[in-house]
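Lecture 7, part 2: worked example. A protein chain together with zinc ion.
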Amino acid sequence: MNKSLVLCSGGLNSAVLVALAREAGPVALLHARYERPPAKREADLAARLAAHYKINDALVLDLPHIAALRAQFTATASTSTTSENAATPSATTRIGADTPIPGLLATLVGAAATAAAAAGATRVWLGLSEISARPGEESQPDPAQAREFAQLMECALALTSPIPITLETPLIDMTRGDIVMLARRMEIPLKLSWSCWTSGDTPCQNCTGCRSRARGFLDATTPDPILTRPVSPNSLNAPQAAAPQPVSA
Ligand SMILES: [Zn+2]
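Predicted complex, written out as structure tokens:
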């Protein structure tokens, strides 16, 4: 039976992904840690999830350069948006703490492929279900874009890897609501997941991660086990408040 390596962020999709991969056979788990507000909590949850599913082969990969490069990127982007020469619409993109880091996802897939080869795994599992259409905008479900990314990455791995490595993306056509409903059917402990992009002890309910998660639980008509009271649909219809500024390295 082919061994799988699951890229686990500690988020909601990751919890479901780990459960699905575990059903399919032996699993190794990789959590990539880089400096951002919920990093410690996410690493703890990934470890607890591995323990819950009795996965002994769990690795934490530190990427300390990401925070420094991110700080440099946001500073450069912020400067360009205020310059007199930046008059194009794309240059007015909001840069905040929830702005995706350019190239990060591809970096994580590459690291996962390396870890898979080291663990004797030939399948890398990714929790792709949505990719932000444009950095700085709130994520919108876009299965076509996610599928294209996965296909291109699989081609890149085929061209650069001496052993065949496939990408498994079972959530790619699912909405957040679908994923929560699947988790409920599989009795996956979603209390062992975290989606907020801030460092608070409770979810901020404003960041892109919180809003996307809340939409999923609302659509699934299921309470979120990490909240003490349910989210109001009205709060999700309200405009997202300005994201906090990025944390410097
Ligand atoms: Zn949040």
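The longest strand covers residues 27-33. The CA atoms of residues 191 and 225 lie 5 Å apart. Keep this in mind for problem set question 3.
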